[in-house]
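How a chain folds remains the central question behind the approach discussed here. No coordinates are needed to read the tokens, only the vocabulary itself. For completeness, the protein is quoted in full, as a sequence line and a line of structure tokens:
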Amino acid sequence: MTASTEASAGARPDTPSRPAAGHASAPPAAAPSPARARGPRTRGGLLLLEAAVAFGAALVLPVLARSFKLDPLNRIAQVSGLAGLQLRFALLGLLLVAAVVLAMRLRRGRHFDLATRLASAGIAGLASGFVAAGAVVALLGTPWPMFGLNGDSGRIVEWAHAVANGRPSGSPVYPPLPLYTLGYYAEWFHGGNTAYAFKDLQILGTAAFGPLVYLAWRMLLSPVRALAFGVVPAFALIDSYKPYSQTVLVLLVPVLVAMVVSLRRSGTEGRRPVLLKGAGFGVVLGVLFLAYSGWFLWSAAGVFFAALLYFPWRTGLAKGAAFMGAALGAFLVVAGRYLAVMLVEGQTTKDYNFRFDNFTDPAYYLMWRTDMPGKVGDWPPPGEFGGVGLFALVTFVCLGAAIWLGLRKPLVVTIAAMFISAWVMRMYIASHMYETQTVQLYTRTNNQLLYCGLILCALVAHLVSQRLAERRSASDAPSAAPHDSASEATAGGPGGPGGTGFPGREGAVIGALCALLLLLGTVSSSVSDRFMPAQDGTYRILPWVSHTVRMQDGTCPKFAPGGECSKDGDQGWLGYIR
């Protein structure tokens, strides 16, 4: 997971930047100046700085939203709250973009690359912070988590309280990490009240979504590309209700890709780095498995295929085996006990709950209406081509184009294999549904198929821009001065005055950041609006119920409808379950 890993995956390692395109008289010196060498210039130090900026930015909007004075059950108040969040998001994001512009103009652009890193990380954090702030607005005036003590929320609260007090949870196969995290967090900050603590973790987990996804993709891509091709597709899945399950998926994909890349390189590396990297991946995968194991089942066949394909059979068989052995050993140390439970109990645990999506076309995965779909008309929506919509056509075309352009790149092949693996598992389980009368959560493959499909669409742009950059570099090679390959990987290609018609890389970076800022702001607002309280049978019912549950001191939440509440809250949602 070093700069060499980035290069193997299709991006390029970070190197010192050339002068800004606007300064044509700059000397073509290849070596960095002493000024550029000061500060935390190592890759590890820069990544830590990016992480600090991302997580710090993710907390800004949720903190600001706590001071909003509005009734979250009033639609006009909800719209005002969303507009207030959007305004603050835009202003903070534009400050980050302005910092990049300033870095381009000052000191001959020496700090442009650093500013680009921090702005990309900051925008990733602000975006998920927006969604978390939306949850803060939706739950103003109530201490309860979304859905109060009903449904999954109630079970998680109960099981977390049990494990925190040394008792077994109500389900041995439920991922233990969220339960233990909630249980101990409640002990430390809420006097053991897991219900009130779950509200905090719903908000904090949502806020951490963007920074975690960004940092995971930074193992493979440069900053702007990690934001555009990794973070943006992930926002199709962000969830304020149970953020940990979707977070595991969007982290698992880049981690598995990076693992396959490292496996491919293991044959040419020293034994110590090979063992350390293998163990590191094993630990990370073990933690993700403890947080949510379902994605491992859908992905297993595809990742196994990619591992066989990129195993160093000729260059280092023993080192490749050592890498996989270290990974497996570390994984078993972290998650071996839970894996054993899953292998035994999972055989007898059956899912008999037929939901809305179980009665729809199994080949449709592009949108998931959740377990509470609300008012549904013709579903799936009618498509233009044989019942298939344009979005599906674009996804499948991009799948083929990505494989065509990146057939030899583990970044592309691993993700495509995970897509196909999830598709096959989905159809296998669905084909046995009538015979077994069980669901086994196969509809949750929607999320993996959608995420991998969106990434493959983004990777087409990534691969095309690389091809264009390579052609431009080849055409300029005889006369070009030394330049910054990493920054070009970030921006999509070299540029500057004179060239073949491409704008300078600085302009490309700034333009991309502006576009991504607006896109993520719009998506985050839409997702936040999906969780604003309402009695419409969709996920809006989750925060609505939270305002109708009697608090532990016997009083009603501040904005309880009509000032009325009850022990379990409004149970009208039961009529929407299908």
About this structure: Residues 1-40, 480-501 have pLDDT under 50 and may be disordered.
